[in-house]
Specification:
There is one protein chain. With 701 residues, the chain is an alpha/beta fold. It has four domains: 23-128, PAS domain (Beta-Lactamase); 230-391, 2-Layer Sandwich (Heat Shock Protein 90), CATH 3.30.565.10; 420-553, Rossmann fold (3-Layer(aba) Sandwich), CATH 3.40.50; 570-695, Four Helix Bundle (Hemerythrin (Met), subunit A), CATH 1.20.120. The protein is elongated.
Amino acid sequence: MISALNHATESVHGLRRLALMIDSVSDAIVTIDSHGIIEYANRGAQELFGYRLEELLGRNVSMLMPQPDGNRHDGYIASYLKTGQSRVMNHRRSVNGLRKDGSLVPLDLTLGQMLEDGEKKFTAVMRDVTEQRRLQQLAAETERALQNAKNRADEANRSKSIFLATMSHEIRTPMNGVLGSLELLGLTELTASQHETVTMAAQSGRELLRLLDDILDFSKIEAGRLELRHERASMREHIIDKVLATHAPLASKKGIELRSRVDPATAQRFCTDPLRLRQILHNFVSNAVKFTLAGSIELSLDVIRTKPGAQVLRFSVRDTGIGISAASQARLFRPFVQADGDTTRRFGGTGLGLAICLGLAESMGGTIAMESVPGLGTTMSLELSLPTLREVEVNNCRAQLRNAPSINDPQVQHRAAPPVTTAASSGTLVLVVDDHATNRNVLVRQLASLGYAAESAINGVDALEKLATRRYSLLISDCQMPEMDGYTLARTIRDDEWRRGISRLPIIAFTANAFASDATRALVAGMDDYLSKPTTIASLSSLLERYLPLPHTPETNMSKSSEQLLALRDSVIDETHLAQIVGDDLAERAALLDDFKESCDIDAKALEAAYQSGELHTFMEIAHRICGASKMVGASGLAAACRAIESCGRERLALSDDSGHADALGTSTREAYRRFQAELDAFDNYLKQGTACLNNASPAT
C-alpha cells in the first residue's frame, strides 16, 4: 500500500515537472478534443495570443483563427475524423493566428494527434515567426534592390556600348574620307615636301583611329562584351612574323636589333584569335621599340608544356631599354596610367595599352607578367593555353576586318579604270551604295585606282533601281542608310535571285560599325564579306581579288567564259583546300564534287522539310551535317550559310521555351535559310557550267 502511494506521488511529481517544462517552452502549445474545444494551453500560448488560461479553456479553438479559417475549422475536424485524410497533420505549415486584440501573427504550425480514452485529440505547436518573416521580407527587398541596381548597371553598360558603337561609326565615317583622300593624293605626282606632308597627315589620321579603337576595346572589355573570333593560325607565319614586320622599319631606323626565336616543339597550327593575340604582342614590341634607345629586342615563343589537344605557350618580349621601377610596375596595368609624367612628355601615349592587353589576355584565358630593372631593360610575357589544330574544329571562321597596310603598298597593282560601258560589257562594273557623299566619292576613286569602273547609289532603294539593269558584277554597300539599309537591300537581292533563278551577285558590307556581331548580321542578311571603314586601297584590292579579279597580265588568252567561271569558282569553292585533298587531278576533283552534290541534295531536301514543318532542332542538326561536308570539300559559301543557320537557331532556342512549335524558326533563321538556298544555287550553277572552261585554264590562275 505504501509502495503504491509512493509510486503515485512520484507520478504526480513527474506530471507536474512535465507541465512546468511545457510551460517554460517559448512555443505555443494547445490541445483540443475532437470537437475543437481547448483542453490545454501552455504559458507560451497565453502570451502569444494575449488570453488568460481561463479565457481559453472550454472555448472553441477557432477563436484563435482569422476568417474564413475560423468558420471552416469544425468542418476540417469532422472531415478528418471521417476520412483520415489531412494536408496539415504531422506537417509544418505557415498560417496566421488571431490575437485577442484583433491583430494577426504569422505562425509556423505543426499538428499532431493522440488517442485518450478512445477519443482522438489534437495538439498544435505554434511558433511566432514575425521576426523571421521581417528578415525574409528585408532580404527579398534587398535582393530586389540589388537586382534593380544590377539591371540599371547593365542598362548603363548597354547604353555605353551603344553610344560607343554609334560614336565609332560617326567618327569612322569622316575618317574614311580623310584617310582615303590622303591615300589617293599619295598616288599623284607630288614634290618631296608634299609627299612628306601627306605621309604625316595620314600617320596622324591612323593614330587618331588607333586611339578610337583603344577606347572602344577598353570599354568592351569593361562591359564584358569583347568578342573573340577564332581561326586557324600558325604562330610563326601569322603571329610572330607579322608582328616583327610591322615594327622592323622603326627598329632599324633607331639601330635596334629586332630578332625572334620560336621553340621547335611548337605545334604547326592552333585555334586562336590571331588579331587579338597580335594586338597584345604589338603592344609589347611597340613599347620595347619606344623605350629602347640602343641594343636589341627579342620576341620569343616557348612551349611550357604539351597536353592532349593543346599546348601552353609563353610569348616573351625582352628589351635592353630604360626599364621600369618596381613602384611604377604596379600601376602600369591601370587605365590611363604611365610610369611617370616625364614618360608621357618624352614618349607620348594614352596609358591604355597594357590595361587593354591585360583584359584581352584574361578573355583568352591567359596571364601577363612583367619583369624590369631600371637601366637594364624589361621583359613582358604572355602565357596561355591554346588548342592545337588536330584536336579542334573551328566553327567560328567569319569575315574578318582586314589589317590596313601603309600608303602606296608595293604589292597593289594600280591601273587605269575603263569607261563604264566597257566595264559593264566585260563584267567588271561595280556599284557603290552609301548615303554619305564623301564615302561614295572616295570609294569610287579608290576602285578607279585599281582599274575598276564604278557607279554609285545613295541608298538601298536607289541601288535596286540601278541593279535592275543587270549591268553590275559586284555590290559594295553601307549598312546604315535611310529609306532602305544595307541589310534589307541584301535580303531583297537574295530573295529576288532565288525567286527568279538568276546568278548570285557578290555583296560586300562596307560599314563603320565596331562590333563583331555586325559582321555576323551582314552575313546572315546574305552579304558575302565585310569591309571596315576607313579602308585602304590594299584592303580593297585584296577583297576584289577574291570576288571580282581582273586579269593580272594583258597577255592572257583566257576566254570570257573561263574568266567568269574562275571568278564564280573563287566565291563558291576554296580551291586551295580542294587541291590539298585531290591535287591537280581534274577527274578526281569532279568526282569528289559530284559525290558531295549528290549527298548534299538529299540533305537539302531534308533541310527544306524541317524548314516547312518548323522543326528547329532537326533543322539545325541537318545544317550542321551539311556544314561539315561542305568544309571537307572546300564549299566555303555553303559552310558559312550553314553556320549562320546554326548560330541563328541557337539564338532562337535561347529565346523560346517551346522550340518545337511550328513558329519556332524565327525571322533571322529563315533569312539564314534563304542565304543557304542562294549559296546552293550558286554551287549548282558552278557545277552546271562544268569543268570544260577550267580544263583550258590553270586552276592556279
